Amino acid sequence: MPPAFTAANRDPPMSEPLHTLTGTCRHSEEIRKSRFLAVAAPVASAEQALAFLREVGDSAATHNCWAYRAGQDYRLNDDGEPGGTAGRPILQAIEGQGMDRVVVVVTRWYGGIKLGAGGLMRAYGGTAAECLRLAERVPIVAMTRLGVHCEFAELALLKARLKELETEIEDEQFGADGVDLHLRLPDDRVAEARLLIRDVSRGRSEARRLD
After folding, report:
1. Ordered DSSP codes for 44-58
2. Tens digit of pLDDT for each residue in 188-202?
3. What angle do CA 144, 10, 108 make, to 5 degrees?
4. H helices of 43-165, where?
5. In the chain, where do the E strands start and end?
6. What is the Cα–Cα distance from 187 to 185, expressed in whole angstroms?
7. Domains of the chain
8. Which residues of 39-75 are buried (b: 16+ CB within 10 A; e: fewer)?
């Protein structure tokens, strides 16, 4: 695989929550006889992004250019196009659409007409941006993991009430004196969860952060 450019510690604008995709999406355009196909997908890591590239890249195509962003990790690749004309516009499309945890691969089948640097940037960036614009998306919610010990008699009520706070029970360990729970819930529900745990346990249990 050709070398890729890596950029780190680039914070996105914080005015709106970032989004990711609900699933894989595609968008195709023909530009001056060249066909451009953008395929985008949600990813949680660099490993997932590169695996997706290997899955959707067409070895018979002229170029498979790509970029992904997963938290603070950014990478991009021009795959033989002039430097800065493909991977960077794709990454800018991801950022411009307010996306995170997303990979976009734009495959080009050359049609015989050169586009020039500006034309390539518009083609790759525009195809990627339109793919993301048309895709179904969901906001990325910051999550927290908590641990709590509760008595057997309180377990059913506590689990029912925590479910109302969008809490997922990741692990449940039964012991001689009660149950240890590992919880995962949105950051903005943590204060409510702590209060709930204290109320249900009558002050005997306190939630602790696991992260």
Report:
1. SSHHHHHHHHHHH--
2. 889 999 999 999 999
3. 105
4. 46-56, 87-96, 116-134, 152-163
5. 5-8, 19-21, 25-31, 34-42, 63-70, 73-77, 102-109, 137-139, 143-150, 168-175, 178-186, 208-209
6. 6
7. 5-139 (3.30.230.30), 143-209 (3.30.70.240)
8. bbbbbeebebbbebbeebbeeeebbbbbbbbbeeebb
Q: Cα separation of 141 and 133, whole Å?
A: 20
Q: How far apart are CA 37 and CA 106, in angstroms?
A: 5
Cα–Cα distance for residue pair 115/37, rounded to 1 Å: 16
Please check whether residue 183 is in contact with residue 169, taking contact to mean a CB–CB distance below 8 angstroms.
yes
Percent of the chain at pLDDT exceeding 70: 92
Query: For residue 5, which of 62, 117, 89 has the smallest C-alpha distance?
Result: 89
Residue 123: count of CB within 10 angstroms of its CB: 22
What is the DSSP pairing of strand 34-42 with strand 25-31? antiparallel
pLDDT, one tens digit per residue, over 161-173 is 999 988 999 999 9
- As a whole number of angstroms, the distance between CA 131 and CA 127 comes to 6
